Amino acid sequence: MTVADERNPATPETSETEPEEPIKQRKNGLYPGVSDELAESMKSGWADTELHDLEPIAQAAETAARRAALSARFPGDRLVIPAGNLKTRSNDTDYPFRASVEYAYLTGNQTEDGVLVMEPRADGHDATIYLLPRSNRENGEFWLDGQGELWVGRRHSLTEAEKLYGIPASDVRELADKLREATGPVRVVRGYDAGIEAALTDKVTAERDEELRVFLSEARLVKDEFEIGELQKAVDSTVRGFEDVVKVLDKAEATSERYIEGTFFLRARVEGNDIGYGSICAAGPHACTLHWVRNDGPVRSGDLLLLDAGVETHTYYTADVTRTLPINGRYSEIQRKIYDAVYDAQEAGIAAVRPGAKYRDFHDAAQRVLAERLVEWGLVEGPVERVLELGLQRRWTLHGTGHMLGMDVHDCAAARTETYVDGVLEPGMCLTVEPGLYFQADDLTVPEEYRGIGVRIEDDILVTEDGNRNLSAGLPRRSAEVEAWMADLKG
């Protein structure tokens, strides 16, 4: 990869008294400067590429409704929601950019440096989306700057952005000065744009800003129809990704868990925006490490593969699915025993998901089944009520049985406890149900045959008007059905 060797150390000035900041030159670039003749040549001879027939994005009506709800909650307050900035990976390379969930949820836009500002008026707010305009052709930015159009691609013009997102658009480079001069109450979503926060430092309070963040998190608890459709797309792509993995398990055995990771990633990038989180491709005893994302271990016939992965759609909605698969296609007797216990626990958990139920009910139902099995197997002393009261099953279950799902894999994380884990399920909520049993390789409290076996089964469950729908039902869950599915895929 090359990076802007020819950045100009001395670009033209905007006036005699106010020189424009020069475009930064790479220290060891091969071109020391730009001749006047070349600079003049690059200013002209370019076709007009303005896009005139743009249609609003698919979720424009939904984002407008979300902004209206936000406006109603904070009358009279100026609201500032940044997308965030590029983050340096190393030297002059950046991480792939992902806009803040709050910003993308309210606008549908995903470009770096964007900021949504809601200006208060008598009967609501006026929304403006502040963006970088197309890169400048007069001063050479479009070909000299490392973020110029010829280096990283064309940005939408402000006029184009207005058509796409249904929001008036302005130049974000002017926003910080405007915010410094602003009066009246202001709230900002923190943690994404240090420059914007600095401009508001004397106008905001942590308490008021937290109220904004919490509201935007809780607003996502119940998904609209567009969101449900995107979640189903994410899950459907994820199902195909799991099928891809099963078909290449022989190649993974010849290499490592990395082959599984790369195989699933290909599906995510072809059909979606990315993976929704670091794929867990845990073979053998690695399955007992809950977030095993190193994915550098061996894949051996006779072991289990715990694959926890999800495709993220182009609109940022992610699936989160786990299957624990026998690498050779058949569960051993002890593997099946443990797997079937987790399956029974998941069945109990899914059955508890319905409108009006407490959020905690599915967790409690699944944990009870796991505790019963552990007592039955003699791994912990009963009765079951004692085990649950003391949380003794957690030595082998470790984690909660699920979480909200949406634009974040652990969605709505800033919501108040009383509206989330102590809340009640409503139609449109989407959550995971994912019990597991993990017997560490060095756990001397269990028989040797259990050690190094980890099993998790996870599905994405939508709360409906009359119960629930398993969005990931396209992947088999029963042990016998998993074996038949794998055999069919392997031909």
Structure summarized in a few sentences:
This protein has 491 residues and is an alpha+beta fold.
Keywords:
491 residues; 15% strand; 35% helix; five-stranded mixed β-sheet; 17 strands; alpha+beta; three-stranded antiparallel β-sheet; disordered N terminus
Describe the structure in your own words:
Keywords: Aminopeptidase, Hydrolase, Manganese, Metal-binding, Protease. Residues 1-37 are annotated as: Disordered. This is Xaa-Pro aminopeptidase. Its EC number is 3.4.11.9. It is an enzyme of class 3 (hydrolase). The chain has 491 residues and is α+β, with helices and mostly antiparallel strands. The radius of gyration is 27 Å and the shape is globular. It has a five-stranded mixed sheet with strand order 6-5-4-1-7. It is built from 17 helices and 17 strands. Helix 10 (225-247) packs antiparallel against helix 12 and helix 13 runs antiparallel to helix 14 (361-376). It has helices spanning 36-42, 60-73, 101-107, 141-144, 149-152, 158-165, 175-181, 194-199, 206-218, 225-247, 249-254, 257-271, 333-351, 361-376, 384-390, 394-397, 479-490, and strands spanning 78-82, 88-90, 93-94, 115-121, 124-131, 169-171, 186-188, 274-275, 280-283, 304-309, 311-312, 321-326, 430-433, 436-439, 453-456, 459-464, 467-470.
Average residue pLDDT: 94
Oligomer category = single chain
| SSE-based structural type | alpha+beta
In percent, how much strand structure appears in the residues? 5-15%
Spatial shape: globular
Radius of gyration: 27 Å
* Helical coverage, percent range: 25-40%
- Name the poorly predicted regions: 1-19
The description of the largest β-sheet is:
5 strands, mixed
Alpha-carbon distance between the two ends: 41 Å
Number of helices, counting only DSSP H or I runs of 4 residues or more: 17
Across the major sheet, the strand order is 6-5-4-1-7
Q: Would you report the number of β strands?
A: 17
Region (Disordered): 1-37
Keywords: Aminopeptidase, Hydrolase, Manganese, Metal-binding, Protease
GO molecular function: aminopeptidase activity
Family: Belongs to the peptidase M24B family.
